[in-house]
DNA sequence: GACAATAAGTTCAGCAAGTGAACAAATCAA
DNA sequence: TTGATTTGTTCACTTGCTGAACTTATTGTC
């Protein structure tokens, strides 16, 4: 177990990149004397290591950085069948990939994970020794201990202590997390939001997910439901949603919804890319669908900006294509629906991601617990 | 200056009410030994005092509570002319009230405050000695140091270091804050949100304000704009708003908007109460206006719930009347627009407040800085 | 009414994590 | 070569906390 100062140091480095002991001391409000000891301990533990030497006036400074091979983590996504598994190092780099069959029975899942682990670890014998955590991403609500799945429609679960079950079967420290929240943690720890304290990730795919970082910490909400923008009413009296309401964002602005709308309108498109192509050659129906979907997503994001004033919005998309009409409409809708004085003040980044995104996010949940810990330090 | 443990103790008591040393120690994760000293110091400082003795088995416990007369604070609202001023104690109780003329010149305001202070303090000579801070509530954006007004349309300000100016003139530690955020702090410190870590306050009056507490701390947003729900687009292609967009919440769901809509529709109502009366006797126009306004406010609050999953929504209203049709419609619109599984999960409290609310909020900003401090301890 | 049982709060020696000042180390600039 | 400069370490000392033993104030029981 790391001390609170050690964790703080790791957090600062993870936010700012490699830093010298003196700079670290200053930015943590500690003396150089204290810093010296903390750094020494972390280096001994193998978590930190000296990297570049920076020459200036006076004695050169030695930058400290996370030691990539200081710890390894496993991440598993329960969002697809087969379920992707990844092995990542302390820098979030993916070292190995595997797939395992999916099940809806927690005990079976734990068994399948235990079975698949040796193959994942086979290529890197040292990773097995330093395996420091396992993360699982799933669609549903997770408690703040990242141990129990409170509710998952997709998996048909209610109060399943999945982390404990997996931990018993594998012997590895396990944490679970909601899919969108896991992606947000991964962006904070290893991605493009490292140094941003307040931001939201919107994951655009078959569904629309969202998660907030506030004050440098994942904000889970009072019932774990923060960021569930998919079912906000975006088209009053719109189409019925499977949730029971009407006009939810999810009925218009997910890839699934776009495909369904295309089908309903008699288009033969089976992907967003195809629909974009149709629109680019002037297909009025395709253009209308993209406008409707993009306008809805943009409006929701504009609300997010007005409500929470984040420092960045990161839109991740798997199959999507944000360079075409859809992306343009989203951008325009955002700009048109935030307070004019705000417009352009909030950076919107879009990022194409591969299908590893959920497993990566899962691994970063384990990494986050190892580096920064669960507590509000 | 208080230590971090002293501040933590004060925060726990402010959240939970009077507690014994032993309970405090347990809830702060400290030993009874440490607690003993911390409590002794705070009692010596006059901030804490022993109150009730609770008898059970064993030695009775002595509850510790904030000493109301341990410190006093001044709060001023720059939202009305004349500007209300209050003197409050450490429990948030209002001890004295005054008014002072309003100005738009920061230097003049500081002078007017300095002039008005003696009269406010006249009745309580001890308060003058223990005056520990001054807070100012205003409409506009305030930086996170609660020192500079970044932007205020109402006052015509841009980057005004108001806190410093007032402090120089009066010699009192001064903090400024946005009106809605000040009210949220006052509800957290002294009101009905004491023990709630995540909540939002929606202040319904001439305009619609909102502020969030997240993780027990005021969340200001990246540019200080968190909670600015007044200009979220709630009626796409709705009426033009003075902000330049269309269909903002502010154009439908503020008291000002309701009055304007009534006037435009030819009703002679000059207050929400009158409009409610018309509606109760079956005036179709009045009913329509109240439905439109209530539906809009409810939808915005539903979005707030979906986006942030707060533990409570507190609606404060000055002139408003939430027992009538308007309140009912708001409630219904909230329920109808949150994920059905969520419905009823988020407590909505409405609270009628007097016109002191802004000045009280301002005083609580000063109290918050005294008790808990500006730092994320 | 005496006396155990119980729990609150205090005291005190000791420990862990920090500080400040002095110092050693490694470089650049003159 | 020497001085200036800045990094990082060492060391004596302070601070805030802990654990254990103790004192204190009460209830319950015989």
UniProtKB/TrEMBL annotation, chains A, B:
Pfam families: ROK. It comes from the Bacteria. PANTHER family: BIFUNCTIONAL UDP-N-ACETYLGLUCOSAMINE 2-EPIMERASE_N-ACETYLMANNOSAMINE KINASE (PTHR18964:SF149), ROK (REPRESSOR, ORF, KINASE) FAMILY (PTHR18964). Belongs to the ROK (NagC/XylR) family. This is ROK family transcriptional regulator. It comes from Rhizobium mayense.
